[in-house]
Specification:
The chain is built from 20 helices and 19 strands. It is of the alpha/beta class and 495 residues long. The protein folds into four domains: 79 residues, no CATH class; 215 residues, Rossmann fold (3-Layer(aba) Sandwich), CATH 3.40.50; 89 residues, Orthogonal Bundle (Tyrosyl-Transfer RNA Synthetase), CATH 1.10.240; 79 residues, RNA-binding S4 domain (Structural Genomics Hypothetical 15.5 Kd Protein In mrcA-pckA Intergenic Region, Chain A). The strands form five sheets. A six-stranded mixed sheet has the order 5-10-9-6-7-8, sandwiched between helices. It has a five-stranded mixed sheet with strand order 13-19-18-15-16, with no helix packed on it. Strands 1-2-3-4 form a four-stranded mixed sheet. Strand 7, helix 6 and strand 8 form a beta-alpha-beta unit. Helix 12 crosses helix 13.
Length: 495
Amino acid sequence: MEGGEGGICEYIPEQPPEAVLTARRDVSGSPVTAIGCVSTRRGRVREGAVNMRWYRDLIALCRQAGGVFSSPCTGNDTNINRKEMKNMGIYEELVARGLIAQVTNEDEIREMINNGKATFYIGFDCTADSLTAGHFMALTLMKRLQMAGNKPIALIGGGTTMIGDPSGRTDMRKMLTKEDIDHNAECFKRQMERFIDFGEGKAIMLNNADWLLKLNYVDLLREVGACFSVNNMLRAECYKQRMEKGLSFLEFNYMIMQSYDFYYMFQHNGCNMQFGGNDQWSNMLGGTELIRRKLGKDAHAMTITLLTDSQGNKMGKTAGNAVWLDPNKTSPFEFYQYWRNIDDADVLKCIRMLTFLPLEQIDAMADWEGAKLNEAKDILAYELTKLVHGEDEAEKARQASKALFSGAGDTEHMPTTELTNDDFGGGAIDVLTLLVKCGLAASKGEARRLVQQGGVTVNDEKVPAIETTFGCEQFTGDGVIIKKGKKVFHRAVLV
């Protein structure tokens, strides 16, 4: 956005490309006024949910410019459902997309985020050197809320990672060194910048190591320890599921540390709301209660729906490994293929929850079947790959995918594993080892099942038995193309 006093602020939304919205402040201190309406190439105003979406974006623009929203578009030619537009805020859109799981006070939260009054945070523990597809929900939520005028705080868990979140775990997390955590935090920052605008006054990034590592243990116990009931803590789901197999005292402190984060940022950064996955509910309530008891003020929490498939399993893993946002860990083509190959039952849910396509457009896909459902999968894969890796990489992945399925055999953008002579004992490699080395199976046991079920082909020939081997000479030049199932392609080449 450009402009300011006496200037023009122009906003060009991603969808649809023909829509242009502008805002103007005539004199210092006057309202920022919408100039024109959401138009199409035919000069007509878009109707329904799409129309409202652009108006919400314009409202956010006006707020960022320091004014209030008003519109000269009052004529009958605008075709705006005023009642619907009034009621359809960002909160209602989150509900319509199926993103909201639990809230502490729905009326207050709705009012805050619909009017751009929320300064909210989402925490990310640095357990790896890349974010994963499992973080998508949080990242897109932050983007949606920022577009609506709210201020995100991306909290890097440099301190809490040293303890380890027991939520959703059957065993204790691996303890990382401070050096590893710092490295992972830097990787997170670079990836988040693709989703969140960290420009001045728009969003901030903090690291809880900056205050947690400075705490005196006895002082902490005296300051906040009395605000937590051990009985209540043990009733939390994140602890209950660990009690039988053993819960370390280290992990038992995680709720207190996360609650302290909220308490600290409430005082120092004006943070009045926390968002997180539905498995974080107990930890988030700990923070709101700590603020209430220590400061006598209200803070708010909202959980978002966990990204699961139709069977209830967490999405974002393939061949036993996470789907990473780092292109060096999961290539744009592999990332695209993961979403292109999800189950039919999960397609529309993922489009609704993860993409920024208008709800009106998504609703029109509800009855798609067969070839049209494959088109929806392509839309999902393209939109998400574009979000993470950019439009150019998304287009390359789409074209490579189409070429493979058409038999053109484009390998330029196909995920590739480089093998060395050391991988070939006696000048050959068995199919089970090959599948594991290429990341197409998490173990030789899984590879064995794939082959026995007839799900593996090499250079268009089905692998007949688990004893099958391949000579190193087959991997020279362009290498070999391995196909797992009907849709997963991988190249292996000798270097």
